[in-house]
């Protein structure tokens, strides 16, 4: 019999981690996996950033900072925005330094979503979106972007109702690697403007853009809640640092909520963040572009992969006749760890491959995946089961 002590709040029922847990359970049995499932860079934080954070600790900057973040880091971010967007009032706008972009997302959902409110985002999506919307009593509304992961304006428009509270976009995207063009962002801006809708733009992968310069939603639409991070760009995932800017009334409520939840982002990480903003990462980005090309060269034809333009993921169709979960199970049996698409989507047709690993490991993993695709197809042909294979 469960006692009151162990009674869990009903809202926890709304979180479902079963998909990813299954993968991790399988992965735990692997001795030395070729791990293509990781959502963080394989390079380390640049030395200058580390040195500055260490010095901050030595200098005694170990106390709470202001809730909204240190004045120095906010000023550096404001300057960055002035350069990037040409905002004349960049220095006067509100900025909130958060505990990662995850911190921002929680504050946004809690501050803006009433029970029954709908939050529209493109599918496939970053898992946290649906979980946080659910946790806030809202209704996640995923909009299908298969097979090429472009944002289809008609489909997004059809998903908007009078209950829609916000639209979340994520370019470059996790898990697809899709990068939105200026035209696509303009079309989204026009649609959002027509409905007077807030657009939350998760730009955590902004530096990882391989075929064209990165363009931000904030350049096209005033009512953008812009989210940026340090986790991916500078490999600072464990430092828990991100930032947000957007409509002042919203930033104000997020800041108030941060005061009573996270209090502030880590002080030493904020010190390091100032140096991060001045750090040139083009070498690391070039290495990731090369790995992206390796993935496209290896899997493009065999799997019919749509070339991803950014982030460090490819979202690859499972071979015909096989669900993603079945293919991922075979991959794991063959020592390659990837994640089935149903963790990020209402569909189970694709798998996410992260190329944030060494070239050697990546090459090894790609070779195995290619072989598996071929044996899978042969097996189907032998069995004569064609498209449908018994489960
Ligand atoms: N948004 C997206 C799209 C992500 O992929 C991630 C990390 N996986 C986050 C937000 C959160 O990152 P962090 O909290 O480390 O800034």
Distance between the termini: 37 Å
Q: Tell me the number of helical segments per DSSP (H or I, 4 or more residues long).
A: 12
The percentage of residues in β strands lies in 5-15%
CATH 4th-level superfamily of the largest domain: Type I PLP-dependent aspartate aminotransferase-like (Major domain)
The average pLDDT score comes to 93
Element-level helix/strand string: HEHHEHEHEHEHEEEHHHEHEEEH
CATH topology of the largest domain: Aspartate Aminotransferase, domain 2
**Count of discrete domains:** 2
Query: What is the CATH domain class of the largest domain?
Result: Alpha Beta
Strand order of the largest sheet: 2-8-7-6-5-3-4
Determine Rg (CA atoms, Å).
Answer: 22 Å
The biggest sheet amounts to: 7 strands, mixed
Low-confidence spans: 380-391
Q: What is the secondary structure topology, with strand pairs?
A:
Layout: H1 18-28, E1 34-35, H2 47-58, H3 71-85, E2 95-98, H4 100-112, E3 118-123, H5 127-135, E4 139-144, H6 153-159, E5 164-169, H7 182-195, E6 198-202, E7 224-229, E8 242-245, H8 248-259, H9 267-277, H10 282-304, E9 313-317, H11 324-333, E10 336-337, E11 339-340, E12 350-354, H12 359-383
Parallel strand pairs: 1-10, 3-4, 3-5, 5-6, 6-7
Antiparallel strand pairs: 2-8, 7-8, 9-12, 11-12
The chain binds 4'-deoxy-4'-aminopyridoxal-5'-phosphate.
């Amino acid at each position: 019999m469960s006692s009151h002590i162990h009674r869990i709040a009903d809202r926890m029922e709304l979180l479902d981690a079963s998909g990813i847990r299954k993968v991790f359970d399988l992965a735990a049995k692997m001795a030395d996996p070729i791990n293509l499932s990781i959502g963080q860079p394989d390079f380390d934080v640049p030395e200058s950033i580390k040195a500055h954070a260490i010095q901050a600790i030595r200098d005694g900057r170990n106390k709470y900072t202001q809730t909204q973040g240190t004045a120095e880091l906010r000023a550096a971010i404001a300057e960055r925005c002035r350069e990037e967007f040409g905002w004349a009032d960049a220095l006067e706008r509100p900025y909130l330094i958060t505990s990662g972009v995850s911190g921002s997302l929680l504050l946004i959902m809690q501050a803006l979503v009433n029970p029954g409110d709908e939050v529209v985002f493109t599918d496939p999506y970053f898992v946290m979106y649906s979980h946080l919307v659910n946790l806030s009593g809202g209704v996640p509304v995923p909009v299908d972007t298969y097979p090429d992961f472009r944002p289809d304006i008609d489909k997004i428009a059809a998903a908007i109702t009078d209950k829609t509270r916000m639209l979340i976009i994520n370019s470059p995207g996790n898990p697809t690697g899709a990068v939105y063009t200026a035209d696509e962002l303009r079309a989204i801006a026009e649609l959002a403007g027509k409905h007077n809708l807030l657009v939350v733009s998760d730009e955590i992968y902004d530096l990882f853009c391989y075929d064209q310069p990165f363009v931000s939603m904030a350049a096209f639409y005033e009512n953008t809640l812009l989210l940026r991070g340090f986790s991916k760009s500078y490999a600072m995932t464990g430092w828990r640092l991100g930032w947000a800017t957007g409509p002042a009334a919203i930033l104000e409520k997020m800041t108030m909520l941060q005061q009573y939840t996270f209090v502030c982002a880590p002080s030493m990480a904020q010190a390091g963040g100032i140096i991060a903003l001045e750090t040139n990462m083009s070498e690391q980005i070039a290495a990731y572009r090369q790995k992206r090309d390796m993935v496209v060269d290896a899997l493009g034809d065999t799997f019919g992969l749509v070339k991803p333009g950014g982030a460090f993921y490819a979202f690859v169709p499972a071979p015909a006749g096989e669900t993603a979960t079945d293919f991922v199970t075979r991959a794991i049996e063959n020592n390659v760890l990837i994640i089935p698409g149903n963790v990020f989507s209402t569909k189970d047709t694709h798998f996410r491959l992260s190329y944030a690993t060494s070239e050697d490991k990546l090459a090894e993993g790609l070779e195995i995946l290619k072989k598996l695709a071929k044996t899978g197809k042969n097996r189907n042909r032998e069995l004569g089961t064609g498209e449908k294979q018994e489960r």
